């Protein structure tokens, strides 16, 4: 199958007044359409840098990113980016916040407005559309951020620790909602998380990165029984704990190397 995202020998150095530092070292990766891939690794190993490169926000020093076979040379509506902070505009209602991506890409039409309202309803935000962000809980705000990201109908979603500011229960609910929403729409996702059980429960594949500079240490294919279960129940599946320990020890080894 043609990969939807292909990273070819990506290297990236940041240049500052104190010199240049290599953040990513010749990293290559294929992601298939509809796949859910997670990146885990020690702080500073280049996860955010990698997502920014895939998003077209940062040009790598070496190598290239292909999106459906075409070289990425800047941000494109085919890629949506969701961050830990929701960055909702406080002066706009929930509905108006949801339309921002569509406005920025000149795609506001009756049809896209209707599909955004539909998404808001699907995310359980139907009663909140005329409220302002400060009226909402953290979990609701992240759901608005998800609607805003999905409203432009991107093929690929980049998620940079989107649950890390949420309480545990809200986070579990949002994991289920995101996996279901993306699988139903056959979207592709690249998630960065600190939480190994979240990575295993949500993904088809978990990639452990090592630091200094960032590189792939090991890739774990998630067994079918875990993939087939919603993240909440995936944690109870046979083999989950063993896999957790394997990924954990790989991550520990990568942190020891620092
Ligand atoms: P992660 O998301 O895995 O924590 P980052 O991609 O944010 O890692 O950072 C990777 C490395 O690049 C770190 O050593 C970080 O200090 C450095 N870095 C990140 N952004 C910049 C920047 N804008 N300028 C200089 N160095 C940076
Ligand atoms: Mg980061």
Give the helices and strands, then pairings:
Elements: E1 5-16, E2 19-31, E3 36-40, H1 47-54, E4 62-67, E5 70-71, E6 79-82, H2 94-98, H3 100-104, H4 110-122, H5 138-151, E7 156-160, H6 168-184, E8 188-192, H7 196-202, E9 205-210, E10 215-221, H8 224-227, H9 231-234, H10 240-256
Parallel strand pairs: 3-8, 3-9, 6-7, 7-8
Antiparallel strand pairs: 1-2, 1-4, 4-5, 9-10
Helix pairs in contact: 4-5, 5-6, 7-10
Bound molecules: adenosine-5'-diphosphate (ADP) and magnesium ion.
Which CATH-level-2 architecture of the largest domain? Answer: 3-Layer(aba) Sandwich
Profile the largest sheet: 6 strands, mixed
In spatial order, strands of the major sheet run 6-7-8-3-9-10
CATH topology of the largest domain: Rossmann fold
Oligomer: single chain
Protein name: NitT/TauT family transport system ATP-binding protein
Keywords: ATP-binding, Nucleotide-binding, Transport
InterPro entries: AAA+_ATPase, ABC_transporter-like_ATP-bd, ABC_transporter-like_CS, ABC_transporter_ATP-bind, P-loop_NTPase
GO molecular function, one term: ATP binding
